Amino acid sequence: MHIDPAVYVRNTIRSVPDWPKPGVTFRDITPVLQDPRSFRVLIDLFVYRYMRHRLDLVAGVDARGFILGSVLAYELNLGFVPVRKKGKLPFRTVAEEYSLEYGNASVEMHTDSVRPGQRVLLIDDLIATGGTMLAASKLLQRLGANVIEAAAIIDLPYLGGSAAMKETGLDIYTVCSFDAGDA
């Protein structure tokens, strides 16, 4: 029996109801990472998608984007750059602020992370409201990079992030999605 690789990955994701607060269902990717077969299937989905793209770097968003992005960069023979939460990088940085449900946050990168004109794949584990990914994309663009696509394992389209990202002209790719009522 053949199962679609994206369905296989989706079926391995754990749904945790009422975490971190009542009414929220957290989509936990750690079972995907713990299982060698599902982790390989996930990375292979990304590798097959991007192996024919002309890319220079993979940028991963703090923190789960580091896991995916570094493995993907290795498999594609590309460099990897981290997009960190504010205050975590030791060298000269540039930051981009974004809105959260209650307040603001920011992400930052070293000023020498990318060179103008480099073609970058931006990756994280999940697209919810899209704030972090949009801020990371703006940051990369401010440093002169061309963000070719933003990728994630999971899209939560009911939260509007993927639509907001597409409205800015950013192409996105996700392995699977969950609707609000999915268990």
UniProtKB/TrEMBL annotation:
The keyword Transferase applies. Pathway: Purine metabolism; AMP biosynthesis via salvage pathway; AMP from adenine: step 1/1. The keyword Transferase applies. Its EC number is 2.4.2.7. One of its GO terms (molecular function) is adenine phosphoribosyltransferase activity. Keywords: Cytoplasm, Glycosyltransferase, Purine salvage, Transferase. SUPFAM superfamilies: PRTase-like. CDD domains: PRTases_typeI (cd06223). Residues 53-155 form the Phosphoribosyltransferase domain. It is found in: Cytoplasm. It is an enzyme of class 2 (transferase). GO terms for cellular component: cytoplasm. Pfam families: Pribosyltran. It catalyses: AMP + diphosphate = 5-phospho-alpha-D-ribose 1-diphosphate + adenine. InterPro entries: Ade_phspho_trans (IPR005764), PRTase-like (IPR029057), PRTase_dom (IPR000836), UPRTase/APRTase (IPR050054). One of its GO terms (biological process) is purine ribonucleoside salvage. Homodimer. Belongs to the purine/pyrimidine phosphoribosyltransferase family. Catalyzes a salvage reaction resulting in the formation of AMP, that is energically less costly than de novo synthesis. This is Adenine phosphoribosyltransferase. It comes from Pollutimonas harenae.
